[in-house]
What does this fold into?
Amino acid sequence: MKLELTVNDTPHVAEIEPRTLLVHYLRDVLGLTGTKIGCDTSSCGTCTVLVDGESVKSCTVFAAQVNGAALTTIEGLAGDDGLNRVQQAFHDNHALQCGYCTAGMVMAAVSLLEEQPDPTEADVRGGLEGNLCRCTGYHNIVKAVLSCGRAAER
Amino acid sequence: MISAAFDYVSARSVDEAVSALTEHGDDAKLLAGGHSLIPLMKLRLASPSVLVDVGRLRDLSYVRDTGDEIAIGALTRYRDLEINDRLQADLPIVAHVAGLIGDPQVRHRGTIGGSLAHGDAASDMPAVVLALDGTLVARGPRGERTIPAAEFFCGFLETALAPDEMLTEIRLPKATGAGWSYQKFRRRALDWAIVGVAAVRNGRTGVALVNMGSTPIRASAVERALASGSSIADAARLAADGTEPPSDLNADPEYRRHLAEVLVRRALEEADGAVTAQR
It folds into this structure.
């Protein structure tokens, strides 16, 4: 089937098998390997990308389901002026250890901040419940996301 | 994990979806958010040869006030239920439970109709719809019919929907100001309930159980005991009556029976305002 997607502001057209998972399309067809496959069972969240601005687990979505949508992956966050503010906050707060969960964490955090621009610590912990860090480095991740809230800017 | 191959049909209307189901019969499955079906397909526990994607039917995403009831479109996503003002006012249990399902990513995709049509005894929403005595609306080649929630869940992952029918709407009686509680016992944030209990006290009391059998079920013995004047503690002792709870890595049947009693008691107490739990 024909798939038309806009990924990180670039339109793509491809002929795919309907059973192609979104994460496989991104990684294997487009070569966007920043999005990782972890558990492959919609638990760990490392495959999180944005579909029309909302976080989804791309291992549990057929690419066909989002035909026509606009996607953002970790590669699409940084601009010409450098890292996106969430990426920068992860950097500043040392919010990663091995880094495997990081792309998913950042994407989930971007979606969370879109829905709740001024989250409390409980909001951040709840908002990231779908993302697992097996280094258990949650503390600095939460700190990084909180630093992006409005309260932190005041 | 990669699912078996299938033909993909993107339905542009309910009628188109129903005709695709009529044409392909048992070989076809409807795909909504896909968060119940796709994991099964990846494990090849389900291998439909035709997938009819109804995910683009946004006109089935709504929450409407119809007087005594709230009508919810089958393709309304959990996220949209969680933040819906009308539900928060008239059916707060639905908004609250929607926010407990899976995680934000799952709630961005999963739909109330998809969950009900999947009919998983471990899912949260079926128990809520049972406790509220909801009505389900299905469309098929012979038109529309309504099915009481109490008659909808027939067996393990089996509902009253015919292979050529699509669930289109869920009608729930308003419970404005009613006492309610949802108890979800799980070990980690994004887990399924090991046992869950939905309770609504609104003149009548509705109590339904999650993961206490092969289907979502009413705790009928508890409801009868309360109707005939039993105390909460006495009624809760009947929580597991007539159930055949499953055994898995998390719990054996005996532990689930124990949990059911404890959680039914907590749910009824909270619904009565006896306990102010943190929501």
